[in-house]
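pinned: reference chain
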Amino acid sequence: MDGHPLAVYTIQQKEDAQDDNSNRTPLLLLHGRTWSSVPVYHLVGDESSTDTEHQEEGEEGNNFSLMEALYNTGHIQPYAMDFRGFGGTPKDEEGYVEPLKCVKDVVSVLKWIHSKNESESCRPPALLGWSHGALIAQIVAQRHPEHLSKLILYSSIYNPNIKYSIPPPFETPMMQQQRLSQPPGRTDHDDFPLHEMAAPNEYDLAMADFTNYFDTFKPNTSSSSSAAVHRNYQPPKSAELFANAALISDPIKVQWWNLHQLNECHPSQITSTPTMVVVGDNDPYAPMVLQAELFTNLSRGVDRTWSIIANADHAVHLSEERGRFVQSVGSFVQNK
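pinned: its C-alpha coordinates
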Protein backbone atom coordinates (compact mmCIF):
# COMPACT_ATOMS: atom_id res chain seq x y z
CA MET A 1 0.00 0.00 0.00
CA ASP A 2 2.62 2.55 1.15
CA GLY A 3 5.76 0.55 0.43
CA HIS A 4 5.65 -1.25 3.77
CA PRO A 5 6.64 -4.94 3.40
CA LEU A 6 3.97 -7.55 4.12
CA ALA A 7 4.58 -11.23 4.83
CA VAL A 8 2.44 -13.45 2.58
CA TYR A 9 2.53 -17.26 2.70
CA THR A 10 1.35 -19.96 0.34
CA ILE A 11 2.00 -23.60 -0.48
CA GLN A 12 3.93 -24.41 -3.65
CA GLN A 13 3.60 -27.71 -5.42
CA LYS A 14 6.59 -30.04 -5.51
CA GLU A 15 8.84 -29.84 -8.54
CA ASP A 16 7.76 -33.23 -9.75
CA ALA A 17 4.03 -32.59 -9.24
CA GLN A 18 1.80 -32.33 -12.27
CA ASP A 19 -0.89 -30.24 -10.56
CA ASP A 20 -1.90 -27.09 -12.40
CA ASN A 21 -2.40 -24.31 -9.82
CA SER A 22 -4.13 -22.10 -12.39
CA ASN A 23 -7.22 -24.29 -11.99
CA ARG A 24 -7.37 -23.57 -8.28
CA THR A 25 -9.35 -20.79 -6.62
CA PRO A 26 -7.05 -18.56 -4.56
CA LEU A 27 -8.20 -18.07 -0.96
CA LEU A 28 -6.60 -15.47 1.33
CA LEU A 29 -6.72 -16.22 5.09
CA LEU A 30 -6.70 -13.43 7.69
CA HIS A 31 -5.64 -14.12 11.27
CA GLY A 32 -7.20 -12.68 14.41
CA ARG A 33 -6.33 -10.02 16.95
CA THR A 34 -3.42 -11.65 18.79
CA TRP A 35 -1.70 -14.38 16.78
CA SER A 36 -0.15 -14.33 13.30
CA SER A 37 -0.82 -16.61 10.35
CA VAL A 38 1.82 -19.33 10.68
CA PRO A 39 0.71 -20.73 14.07
CA VAL A 40 -2.95 -20.14 13.20
CA TYR A 41 -3.04 -21.56 9.66
CA HIS A 42 0.11 -23.65 9.18
CA LEU A 43 0.58 -25.51 12.45
CA VAL A 44 2.65 -28.57 11.59
CA GLY A 45 4.12 -29.42 15.00
CA ASP A 46 6.85 -32.01 15.29
CA GLU A 47 6.87 -33.99 12.04
CA SER A 48 9.22 -36.56 13.59
CA SER A 49 6.47 -37.74 15.93
CA THR A 50 5.32 -41.27 15.16
CA ASP A 51 2.76 -41.69 17.94
CA THR A 52 -0.47 -42.59 16.17
CA GLU A 53 -2.17 -44.48 18.99
CA HIS A 54 -3.91 -41.37 20.30
CA GLN A 55 -4.17 -39.62 16.97
CA GLU A 56 -7.42 -37.68 16.55
CA GLU A 57 -9.65 -38.19 13.54
CA GLY A 58 -8.55 -36.04 10.60
CA GLU A 59 -5.02 -35.55 11.92
CA GLU A 60 -1.84 -36.58 10.18
CA GLY A 61 0.54 -36.98 13.11
CA ASN A 62 1.02 -33.49 14.53
CA ASN A 63 0.07 -31.72 11.31
CA PHE A 64 -2.83 -29.33 11.88
CA SER A 65 -2.09 -27.06 8.90
CA LEU A 66 -5.29 -25.59 7.49
CA MET A 67 -3.34 -24.38 4.47
CA GLU A 68 -2.27 -27.92 3.62
CA ALA A 69 -5.78 -29.27 4.21
CA LEU A 70 -7.28 -26.65 1.88
CA TYR A 71 -4.59 -27.28 -0.73
CA ASN A 72 -5.29 -31.01 -0.56
CA THR A 73 -8.90 -30.41 -1.63
CA GLY A 74 -7.46 -30.10 -5.13
CA HIS A 75 -9.28 -26.88 -6.03
CA ILE A 76 -8.04 -24.25 -3.56
CA GLN A 77 -4.74 -22.34 -3.57
CA PRO A 78 -4.45 -20.98 -0.01
CA TYR A 79 -2.60 -17.82 0.95
CA ALA A 80 -2.16 -16.19 4.35
CA MET A 81 -0.78 -12.81 5.39
CA ASP A 82 0.42 -11.13 8.56
CA PHE A 83 -0.89 -7.73 9.60
CA ARG A 84 1.67 -5.08 10.54
CA GLY A 85 3.67 -6.05 13.60
CA PHE A 86 2.54 -9.69 13.52
CA GLY A 87 4.73 -12.67 12.66
CA GLY A 88 6.85 -11.94 9.59
CA THR A 89 5.52 -8.43 8.91
CA PRO A 90 7.49 -5.70 10.67
CA LYS A 91 5.83 -2.83 12.49
CA ASP A 92 5.57 0.46 10.68
CA GLU A 93 6.89 3.72 12.08
CA GLU A 94 3.75 4.29 14.16
CA GLY A 95 4.31 1.01 16.00
CA TYR A 96 0.67 -0.08 16.23
CA VAL A 97 -1.95 -1.56 13.94
CA GLU A 98 -5.25 -0.02 12.82
CA PRO A 99 -8.28 -1.76 11.27
CA LEU A 100 -8.51 0.43 8.17
CA LYS A 101 -4.78 0.13 7.56
CA CYS A 102 -5.26 -3.64 7.67
CA VAL A 103 -8.11 -3.28 5.17
CA LYS A 104 -5.86 -1.41 2.74
CA ASP A 105 -3.09 -3.98 3.16
CA VAL A 106 -5.54 -6.83 2.51
CA VAL A 107 -6.71 -5.15 -0.69
CA SER A 108 -3.09 -4.81 -1.81
CA VAL A 109 -2.48 -8.52 -1.22
CA LEU A 110 -5.72 -9.50 -2.98
CA LYS A 111 -4.64 -7.48 -6.02
CA TRP A 112 -1.19 -9.10 -5.94
CA ILE A 113 -2.65 -12.61 -5.72
CA HIS A 114 -5.03 -11.90 -8.59
CA SER A 115 -2.19 -10.58 -10.74
CA LYS A 116 -0.18 -13.77 -10.15
CA ASN A 117 -2.80 -15.93 -11.82
CA GLU A 118 -1.98 -16.66 -15.43
CA SER A 119 -5.62 -16.93 -16.50
CA GLU A 120 -7.09 -13.55 -17.31
CA SER A 121 -10.61 -14.94 -16.90
CA CYS A 122 -9.90 -16.05 -13.33
CA ARG A 123 -12.14 -14.52 -10.68
CA PRO A 124 -10.64 -12.47 -7.83
CA PRO A 125 -9.53 -14.43 -4.76
CA ALA A 126 -11.92 -15.54 -2.06
CA LEU A 127 -11.33 -14.08 1.42
CA LEU A 128 -11.60 -15.75 4.84
CA GLY A 129 -11.25 -13.91 8.15
CA TRP A 130 -11.14 -15.62 11.55
CA SER A 131 -12.33 -14.00 14.79
CA HIS A 132 -11.12 -10.37 14.78
CA GLY A 133 -9.87 -10.93 11.24
CA ALA A 134 -13.47 -11.59 10.17
CA LEU A 135 -14.27 -7.96 10.99
CA ILE A 136 -11.41 -6.83 8.75
CA ALA A 137 -12.63 -9.14 5.98
CA GLN A 138 -16.16 -7.79 6.37
CA ILE A 139 -15.01 -4.19 5.89
CA VAL A 140 -12.99 -5.24 2.83
CA ALA A 141 -16.15 -6.76 1.33
CA GLN A 142 -18.15 -3.63 2.17
CA ARG A 143 -15.63 -1.17 0.76
CA HIS A 144 -13.92 -3.13 -2.02
CA PRO A 145 -16.21 -5.92 -3.26
CA GLU A 146 -14.56 -5.88 -6.69
CA HIS A 147 -11.38 -7.39 -5.26
CA LEU A 148 -12.86 -10.61 -3.86
CA SER A 149 -15.12 -13.29 -5.28
CA LYS A 150 -16.42 -14.79 -2.02
CA LEU A 151 -16.35 -13.94 1.68
CA ILE A 152 -16.07 -16.35 4.61
CA LEU A 153 -16.75 -14.93 8.08
CA TYR A 154 -15.30 -17.58 10.36
CA SER A 155 -16.01 -17.36 14.11
CA SER A 156 -16.63 -13.65 13.66
CA ILE A 157 -16.72 -11.58 16.84
CA TYR A 158 -19.25 -9.23 15.22
CA ASN A 159 -21.46 -7.66 17.88
CA PRO A 160 -23.74 -4.77 16.87
CA ASN A 161 -24.19 -3.89 20.55
CA ILE A 162 -20.54 -2.93 20.93
CA LYS A 163 -19.45 0.49 19.72
CA TYR A 164 -15.82 1.44 20.12
CA SER A 165 -15.13 4.97 21.33
CA ILE A 166 -13.08 7.46 19.35
CA PRO A 167 -9.79 8.27 21.12
CA PRO A 168 -9.11 11.91 22.08
CA PRO A 169 -7.50 13.98 19.30
CA PHE A 170 -3.73 13.61 19.00
CA GLU A 171 -3.61 10.83 21.60
CA THR A 172 -1.42 7.88 20.67
CA PRO A 173 -1.57 4.41 22.26
CA MET A 174 1.51 5.26 24.31
CA MET A 175 -0.08 8.44 25.61
CA GLN A 176 -3.30 6.60 26.42
CA GLN A 177 -1.54 3.93 28.46
CA GLN A 178 0.44 6.53 30.34
CA ARG A 179 -2.71 8.58 31.04
CA LEU A 180 -4.60 5.56 32.35
CA SER A 181 -1.70 4.58 34.59
CA GLN A 182 -1.40 7.98 36.32
CA PRO A 183 -2.69 8.49 39.89
CA PRO A 184 -5.91 10.55 40.17
CA GLY A 185 -5.29 14.24 39.57
CA ARG A 186 -2.20 13.81 37.41
CA THR A 187 -2.42 15.03 33.82
CA ASP A 188 1.06 14.24 32.54
CA HIS A 189 0.60 13.06 28.93
CA ASP A 190 4.27 12.93 27.87
CA ASP A 191 4.93 10.28 25.25
CA PHE A 192 7.40 7.45 25.86
CA PRO A 193 8.96 4.72 23.69
CA LEU A 194 6.77 1.83 22.60
CA HIS A 195 9.17 -0.79 23.98
CA GLU A 196 8.66 0.55 27.49
CA MET A 197 5.00 -0.44 27.38
CA ALA A 198 5.42 -3.68 25.44
CA ALA A 199 3.76 -6.62 27.14
CA PRO A 200 4.59 -10.28 26.48
CA ASN A 201 1.98 -12.68 25.16
CA GLU A 202 1.10 -15.53 27.52
CA TYR A 203 0.77 -19.29 27.16
CA ASP A 204 -2.64 -19.36 28.87
CA LEU A 205 -3.94 -16.75 26.44
CA ALA A 206 -2.95 -18.95 23.52
CA MET A 207 -4.75 -21.90 25.12
CA ALA A 208 -7.96 -19.94 25.74
CA ASP A 209 -9.48 -20.67 22.33
CA PHE A 210 -9.40 -24.38 23.19
CA THR A 211 -10.25 -24.51 26.89
CA ASN A 212 -13.14 -22.04 27.28
CA TYR A 213 -15.59 -24.71 26.20
CA PHE A 214 -14.62 -26.89 29.14
CA ASP A 215 -14.92 -23.98 31.57
CA THR A 216 -18.23 -22.64 30.32
CA PHE A 217 -20.19 -25.13 28.26
CA LYS A 218 -19.52 -28.54 29.81
CA PRO A 219 -23.04 -30.04 29.85
CA ASN A 220 -24.87 -31.86 32.65
CA THR A 221 -22.41 -31.20 35.45
CA SER A 222 -22.83 -29.67 38.88
CA SER A 223 -20.46 -26.97 40.10
CA SER A 224 -18.41 -29.52 42.05
CA SER A 225 -18.14 -32.03 39.21
CA SER A 226 -17.45 -29.22 36.75
CA ALA A 227 -14.45 -28.19 38.85
CA ALA A 228 -13.24 -31.78 38.77
CA VAL A 229 -13.62 -31.88 34.99
CA HIS A 230 -11.54 -28.74 34.63
CA ARG A 231 -8.90 -29.99 37.06
CA ASN A 232 -8.45 -33.29 35.23
CA TYR A 233 -8.92 -31.95 31.71
CA GLN A 234 -6.03 -32.55 29.35
CA PRO A 235 -6.02 -30.04 26.47
CA PRO A 236 -5.81 -31.50 22.96
CA LYS A 237 -2.41 -31.89 21.36
CA SER A 238 -3.22 -29.13 18.89
CA ALA A 239 -3.72 -26.65 21.76
CA GLU A 240 -0.27 -27.29 23.21
CA LEU A 241 1.38 -27.16 19.79
CA PHE A 242 -0.45 -23.95 18.97
CA ALA A 243 0.50 -22.23 22.23
CA ASN A 244 4.18 -23.07 21.78
CA ALA A 245 4.22 -21.99 18.12
CA ALA A 246 2.23 -18.82 18.82
CA LEU A 247 4.68 -17.61 21.48
CA ILE A 248 7.57 -18.14 19.07
CA SER A 249 5.89 -16.19 16.26
CA ASP A 250 4.35 -13.48 18.44
CA PRO A 251 6.16 -13.15 21.78
CA ILE A 252 5.05 -9.53 22.24
CA LYS A 253 1.47 -8.28 22.06
CA VAL A 254 0.74 -6.06 19.09
CA GLN A 255 -1.19 -2.95 19.99
CA TRP A 256 -4.40 -2.17 18.13
CA TRP A 257 -5.44 1.44 17.84
CA ASN A 258 -8.46 3.36 16.51
CA LEU A 259 -10.78 0.40 17.03
CA HIS A 260 -13.71 2.75 16.41
CA GLN A 261 -13.00 2.06 12.73
CA LEU A 262 -14.64 -1.33 13.30
CA ASN A 263 -17.94 0.44 13.97
CA GLU A 264 -18.57 0.50 10.24
CA CYS A 265 -19.15 -3.27 10.18
CA HIS A 266 -22.70 -3.54 8.83
CA PRO A 267 -23.71 -6.87 7.25
CA SER A 268 -26.37 -5.15 5.16
CA GLN A 269 -23.62 -3.33 3.27
CA ILE A 270 -22.27 -6.57 1.79
CA THR A 271 -24.34 -6.18 -1.35
CA SER A 272 -22.58 -8.17 -4.07
CA THR A 273 -20.33 -10.83 -2.50
CA PRO A 274 -21.55 -14.38 -1.82
CA THR A 275 -20.96 -14.84 1.90
CA MET A 276 -20.54 -17.77 4.24
CA VAL A 277 -20.87 -17.56 8.04
CA VAL A 278 -19.19 -20.54 9.71
CA VAL A 279 -18.85 -21.12 13.45
CA GLY A 280 -18.48 -23.84 16.08
CA ASP A 281 -21.65 -24.36 18.10
CA ASN A 282 -19.73 -24.08 21.40
CA ASP A 283 -17.78 -20.93 20.51
CA PRO A 284 -17.79 -18.64 23.59
CA TYR A 285 -16.50 -15.66 21.57
CA ALA A 286 -19.09 -15.96 18.78
CA PRO A 287 -22.37 -16.87 20.51
CA MET A 288 -25.08 -18.26 18.28
CA VAL A 289 -27.49 -15.38 18.89
CA LEU A 290 -24.97 -12.90 17.44
CA GLN A 291 -24.07 -15.21 14.55
CA ALA A 292 -27.78 -15.38 13.73
CA GLU A 293 -27.97 -11.59 13.71
CA LEU A 294 -24.91 -11.40 11.46
CA PHE A 295 -26.35 -13.90 9.02
CA THR A 296 -29.91 -12.58 8.88
CA ASN A 297 -28.73 -9.01 8.30
CA LEU A 298 -26.59 -9.85 5.29
CA SER A 299 -27.89 -8.03 2.24
CA ARG A 300 -30.56 -9.70 0.14
CA GLY A 301 -29.75 -10.50 -3.46
CA VAL A 302 -26.51 -12.43 -2.85
CA ASP A 303 -26.00 -16.08 -1.96
CA ARG A 304 -25.61 -16.71 1.76
CA THR A 305 -24.55 -19.85 3.59
CA TRP A 306 -24.53 -20.54 7.32
CA SER A 307 -22.53 -23.53 8.51
CA ILE A 308 -22.58 -24.58 12.16
CA ILE A 309 -19.91 -27.13 13.13
CA ALA A 310 -21.11 -29.26 16.04
CA ASN A 311 -18.91 -29.98 19.09
CA ALA A 312 -16.43 -27.25 18.18
CA ASP A 313 -15.38 -23.99 19.80
CA HIS A 314 -13.47 -20.94 18.53
CA ALA A 315 -10.60 -22.67 16.71
CA VAL A 316 -12.65 -25.17 14.71
CA HIS A 317 -9.82 -25.70 12.20
CA LEU A 318 -7.53 -26.95 14.97
CA SER A 319 -10.10 -29.23 16.59
CA GLU A 320 -11.29 -32.78 16.02
CA GLU A 321 -13.97 -31.34 13.74
CA ARG A 322 -11.49 -29.74 11.35
CA GLY A 323 -12.27 -32.22 8.56
CA ARG A 324 -15.90 -31.10 8.39
CA PHE A 325 -14.80 -27.48 8.55
CA VAL A 326 -12.47 -27.95 5.56
CA GLN A 327 -15.20 -29.77 3.65
CA SER A 328 -17.72 -27.00 4.36
CA VAL A 329 -15.37 -24.18 3.38
CA GLY A 330 -14.06 -26.08 0.37
CA SER A 331 -17.54 -26.72 -0.99
CA PHE A 332 -18.48 -23.07 -0.62
CA VAL A 333 -15.34 -21.83 -2.39
CA GLN A 334 -15.68 -24.39 -5.18
CA ASN A 335 -19.36 -23.69 -5.86
CA LYS A 336 -19.59 -21.38 -8.86
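why pinned: The mean pLDDT is 83. The beta strands are 8-10, 25-30, 76-81, 126-130, 151-154, 275-280, 304-309.
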